[in-house]
Each structure stands twice: as structure tokens, then as C-alpha cells.
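Response to reviewer comment R2.3. The reviewers asked that we include at least one raw input/output pair. We reproduce the pair for 1-phosphofructokinase here without editing.
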Amino acid sequence: MILTVTPNPSLDRTYEVPSLERGGVIRAGGERMDPGGKGVNVSRAVAAAGRRTVAVLPLGGAPGALVADLLDAQGIKVAPVPIAGATRSNIALAEADGVLTKINAPGPELSAQEQELLFQTVRAEARDTDWIACCGSLPRGLAPSWYAELVARAHAGGARIALDTSGRALLEALRERPDVVKPNAEELSEAVGRPLATVGDALKAAEELRERGARAVLASLGADGQLLVDSAGIWFGTARVDVVRSNVGAGDSSLAGFLIAGGYGPKALASAIAHGAAAVRLPGSVMPTPDDLDPAAVTVTSDVPVDRELKEPVS
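Raw output as returned:
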């Protein structure tokens, strides 16, 4: 069972549009409303794979009630933390050529009492849990060290932690040795303070995060593939994707695939890549089912192409 923690969830509205025209009237060809937030998406991907999951998240106001209803309709157990503020609402505009424009609201501010209740809820729900996935940005009121404290508390209870966040929150959490961190290329570059132009650059950055405390690093390089660096070795993988419809939640689906497959080694990396590739072929933030996966399109190797230039370099 995989428990997810999303400190700053959202109600996400995704519109499929032919193209963006600033100042114009755009008619959407498709519309979706989904529960959002990186941890929420991980739970949705785990549930779509037919596995058990519990989503711990602070919820407030009408948007929060709708998020809970939408998750319940997908068969996901929700462990809500009631808050005084309203859950944020986000908007995503998905163009026909695959370009995505997102408008993310800041979210409510959590009080000290609400923060402690969030910790307590994670502890209460963490029994019989294989992994705890802590994901996304921190809402107002939570210090950058909040994830570090959560990792420390979870480890004290014997749980394994997967962490998907960025900036100072990621750096501070490293000292508590999360079992795996999952940065994308931009987050990886920000964490080490230098640009990434090649797969080798990304590899060196991932190794640096391990030196700082991460037990394993699952680095998503977008269209360039994924890297896994842990105590057992280094692996690089890619997948063939013919048509990209939306990359919303693709990284979250990838993390779910990694944890579903055990969260360790090249088989887990292959599962992560297969789930991420399947997600980008689907509209909006739809999560892939096993029928959507194409394992034959995935290639994983320990021969990392360190000199390969990234198609999407990070400056």
C-alpha cells in the first residue's frame, strides 16, 4: 500500500484548446476537472494500476469537498485534514501541439494546529504502508524544513519515504536521508546550482544529491529519459512516444510506477518510464491503466550515454 502526502492539493480544470491567442476568445475542444497536486496524482496513478493507496491532504471549502468527492469516485481512500482556508483551484490549457500552460493558485495558509494535525494524520494512516510519497510544494505557513521533519518522523516509525519537491524544501530534507528523491531536470539543476547540458551533467548532479543525503535519486529528464542512481548502481532509460497529448501528471505517474515496482533497481526504473510515457499519451491529467502501458517501448541500460546532449537543456 502506498500512502501519499500532498500539503498543497488543488482542484484542477484542464481545457484542450487549438492554440493560445493572447487577448482573444478561445473555444475549448475538451474539458476535464480533476483532483490535483503531485501526491494526489501519485495516488490516482496507483489506483489506476489496481493497487491500494491512501491520500492524506488538507482540505477546506467547496473546492476541498469536491476534491474529496472526485477521489472517492476513483476508489481512493481520502484521509482529510480539515482546514479553515479553501483548497486552491488551478487551470491548465493544453494546446493541440502538446504545449501546456498552467495557472497555479498559491493555496491557503495552514495554522500551526493544522500543520500538527497533518503530521498526526500521516502517522495514523502509515500503518502497513510500503511507501510514503511526500509530494509537491508547501503551502503558506509551512516552513521549508517541514518535509525534513516529516521524513524524520516517518523514518522513526519504520516507513520508507519518496520525496518529490524542489528548492529549499528539497535541500533541507536531504539531511534526513529520504529513501528516494525524484527531481525533474529543472529541479535537479536548481538543487546543485549549475546548468545541465548533457546526460552526464544530470548524472553528476544526481550523484551530488546522494552525497548530500538522498539514498536514491530518480531524475526525470523529460523527453530525454530518466536516470536512477542508488547504492546498487546507475541506470538510464528512455521510451518511444509517438504522440504527446499532455504532460500533466506524467512525472507523478512515473513516481507511482517506480514505487509500484518496488522502488529499487532497473525494473522499477523501467516501470517508472513506462508509466510516464503512457501518461503523456493521454489527455489532461488522466492516469494510465495497465492497458495503456507499452513495456516493449522502454529501454533501460547501465551504459549511461554521458556525452549525449539534452534535447531540453537547463540553463
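The chain has one domain: 2-314. The longest helix spans residues 265-280. Further pairs are available on request from the corresponding author.
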